Amino acid sequence: MKRFLVKLVLGSFLWPFAQVLSRLLVCLSATPQLLYRLSHSDVIAQLCGRNLFRAPWASDVRLEGKTVLITGANTGIGKEAAADLATRGAKVIMACRDMEKAQVAIKEVKDRSLNENVVCMKLDLADTKSIREFAQAINEGESKLNILINNAGVMVCPYSKTADGFEMQIGVNHMGHFLLTYLLLDLLKRSSPARIVTVSSMAHSWGSINLDDINSERAYDKNKAYAQSKLANVLFTRSLAKRLQGTGVTAYSLHPGVVQTDLWRHLNGPQRFVMKIVSPFTKTSAQGARTTIYCAVEPALDQESGGYYSDCAAANCSAAGKDDELAQKLWELSCRMLNITWD
Ligand SMILES: NC(=O)c1ccc[n+]([C@@H]2O[C@H](COP(=O)([O-])OP(=O)(O)OC[C@H]3O[C@@H](n4cnc5c(N)ncnc54)[C@H](OP(=O)(O)O)[C@@H]3O)[C@@H](O)[C@H]2O)c1
């Protein structure tokens, strides 16, 4: 009886401690899951373009007999997409401005994919002459083009202009790809079913299109200029899809996630510091290429066109990204600036 009482007293005294201890242990064991879940809460998932609640997308789609063209393929997301699509058996054309870097990249892509049918060609999206020469070479040399990936990009660079006098970010990220797509469209249509994938960014949602000063000549904010160019990617895809209805050519824009690539080269000190802190939540180039590859090959997207994707799924773009009037005005302005007629 005495023993029992001692146990009872000690037990009731120790019980709260035991409970606290057990809760602590549960918490500790749940911490990885908690962090995991936290990193996939809506905001962070949006930021990083990740969703750990879903199994990562994977597909065994083969691309033998198909031709893929990727801009900016000598590094980062473009190079990873090139390696994946070459592994699936496609002929891959890596369109690069720096042929020295391109030679190193093409060797890596061939080695990794075990596919010798990979070529690189010179393309400077900051020069419409280079774009026209490149497109002419493709139109004359290729019998088909099944997937065009408008991937190349510059971010938050100091103010500079393209050879044609466009502000660099809108010039390369939007105008260059707009013209390239225009020049390759007949080939894409003849190769249908074909896809046009344009790599945008969630930064599009902080942007607006300054129709009166798209080249930021009156005032230049490098962040706004980047966001403007990425919004232009979303609006271009939306407008393009409407124009391509019934042709068998479909269009997609996407956010790849926050990806550790050379794109961050122009970030300032504090921005680099922030990126270091968030780096555990960021993606590798290979992970960052998944949504591009998804948009390029996923059969479920055959009947979809004009949409915006993130983390290998349809995603919500900003209200401005759905503004058809703005999209039409941007389309007309782009045609005027590039001196082309594209109704
Ligand atoms: N990384 C991210 O966190 C992130 C997030 C959202 C969206 N994105 C988008 O993802 C795309 C790919 O970027 P990334 O992260 O892979 O960056 P990256 O590693 O810097 O790759 C960009 C590519 O674009 C090329 N490029 C730049 N200017 C060009 C020009 N005038 N003509 C032809 N090619 C040119 C670069 O060539 P060089 O090697 O010669 O410079 C490089 O191959 C971009 O459109 C970017 O806006 C990236």
TrEMBL record:
The keyword Oxidoreductase applies. GO terms for molecular function: oxidoreductase activity. SUPFAM superfamilies: NAD(P)-binding Rossmann-fold domains. Keywords: Oxidoreductase. InterPro entries: NAD(P)-bd_dom_sf (IPR036291), SDR_fam (IPR002347). The keyword Oxidoreductase applies. PANTHER family: PHOSPHATIDYLINOSITOL-GLYCAN BIOSYNTHESIS CLASS F PROTEIN-RELATED (PTHR43157), RETINOL DEHYDROGENASE 12, LIKE (PTHR43157:SF27). Belongs to the short-chain dehydrogenases/reductases (SDR) family. This is Retinol dehydrogenase 12, like. It comes from Hippocampus comes (Tiger tail seahorse).
